[in-house]
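Aim 2, interim progress: modelling of the iron/sulfur cluster-bound target.
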Amino acid sequence: MNKHIKNVKRYGTCSKDCYGSCVFMGEWNDQAPEKKLIIAKPLKNHPLTNGFFCPKLNHREELLYHPNRLKSALLRSSPKATNSFKPISLDHALNLISEKLTTVNNKFDPSSIVAAFYAGNSGLISQFSPNRFFGKLGATITTGGICNEAGNHALSQIFGNYSTTNPFQINNPNNKLIVIWGSNLSDRNNHAYFLVQRAIENGSTVVVVNPVKIKLAENAFLHLQPFPGTDYLIAKYIMNKIVLAEKYDIDFLTHHVDNYKKLLNEVQKIDESRIFHHTGLTRETLDAFVEILVRFKNKTLFIVGFGPQKYFYGGKNLKIIALIQVLLGNFGKQGSGFLFSQSGFNKEFTDSLMSYITLAHLYPPCNSIPLVTLGSSLDSDKFKMLFIYNLNPASSLPNQTILRNSLSRDDLFIVVLDMFLNETTKFADIIIPAKFDLECDDIIPPYFTPGLSINQGGPCPYPDCVSNYEFFQLLAKKKKWEGYKLFHETQEEIFERCVELLPKEAQKSLKLHGYYIPFGINDVPYKDLNFPTFNGKIQIQSSDLEIFDPELDFLLHRNQNEFYLLSPAHKYFIHSQLGEVHKEFENVFGKIFLNLYDIKSIGLEPNEKVLVSNKFNKAQFILDQNNDLKSGTALINSGLPFANSAYENVNFFTPEKPEESQLSGAYFSVIIKISKI
Ligand code: SF4
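Predicted structure of the complex, ligand included:
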């Protein structure tokens, strides 16, 4: 290397849909012919990144310049359902897509064109700037999501904001108890895991509630291992005991909670034996949990994962867990609170950024369809063209049979923007090679740490690779829309303008540090206990405690060879991503895990090939043992991150019916049967 060439330093943020949103300093050699990013160093001074990445993406430069990365546009060369394409120039691809748009637009309604996207790249410009194109077109766009939206919605109904605490409370010296409920921190949120370990060293006690014996359960004071989806029964039992013993925080309830008397009354009606039976927990375990919660009243923090809200009644499940903290008055105090998603604190900044990025006032509102039921929606002849970006639906959406049938329609023309071939590209007519997150200027809204961080885009060595915004700007040009204000700016200019829209303090912090956090380490959110509801009080409705039993009953009434099915992401993957850098774990996706007791009780042996079935699908898997699982629970890792795997995607077994808010998926409301072959 020429020693006179100086490396360029740029701030970057991992834009994967992950709790970390790790912030780093990238060192680039802009003159290098290909490998321009030399190294990404995680920031030591960021209070969540803490100087390390996770094992999923320790070496992002390997992914960035991976030999399989798409470098040119591709045109389908054989029928759908295979990844057979021939390369074409980007300009040719744009012409073909533009012609197709004109044909569809002339023959049908523009709303027959659909844009499907999610948070595969969580940058605000990456996700939402294409709305300018689809808004001008009058197309249909997807709404909602497949992750934590139901939970956010449910918590907002109680608190006026789904974010009520910041993660720095984990290490607040006042904290004495951390309840980790439905969250496998060591695998999914290893930066919070680090903070919790530090809290344990400093004297905090940990209680784990999880159907799986996660790593933190080993050192926990208590591990409650319930059947999946029965969280609300645990919460009702706990509240019942707290109320009967009059250990609730009456001062907090009187001054800050509407309808609290209803809560006190409602939780007195419980059927204990039903709770023990359905949760699979004993009175002793539940009472020990009650005892420690009471002991550390006002000093307890809950960290709740996204799992408990992935049921048909998931929002209510989450609400009832949160009501334990309400009953105990564990809000607005040092070292207490409820951590779920902290991006709700960003709304005051992101609303103005979103208006600018989408320029939504310049076109009528788009029609929309829920992302989670995309498969059924596309089954209709009404839709003729589909654009997919920041999303791998043929891996990550539920009920793959319905979805793939829809994507296979010959009269549905599909354009996919991606960096690699994957399951979804098998259904594409044209693929556009996408830029990696670090090659574009963007603003990232993390969801475990409140605030914002940035990507200062470095150069991309492949001339035909484009960002989402660049692609739709080029397509607008083909449609002779370049005169519209919507398509004037470059991505860099949109980014600059967004930064200027932020408060001065945020602008300064983003420029100096690459991130902005609107809290100091010792700040306690909602310290004044004035919540952003219509009257400043926490809102409780009596319906919050009602779960329509048949939704749970079908989970509870299983035959001997039927099991709850959990489908969490594997430690080395982010659901449908990162297959290129962790190929060595591929065989994990061919396995279904049960604990040894369950394997034996249905007369099978570990390593045996079995038939897994339910009303949605059947497929063969290898049976493997995982004694950390609750008896009665099976586990297959979530959506395959590979393009051509011999293994079946677990989402062939998951229900398309969403959580009751219709905002996200009910992936865990499912039972499967395991049979000998
Ligand atoms: S995947 Fe998550 S934890 Fe890993 S580097 Fe990216 S943001 Fe950080």
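The chain has a mean pLDDT of 94. The pocket of iron/sulfur cluster is lined by residues 14, 16, 18, 20-22, 53-54, 56-57, 574 (CB under 6 Å).
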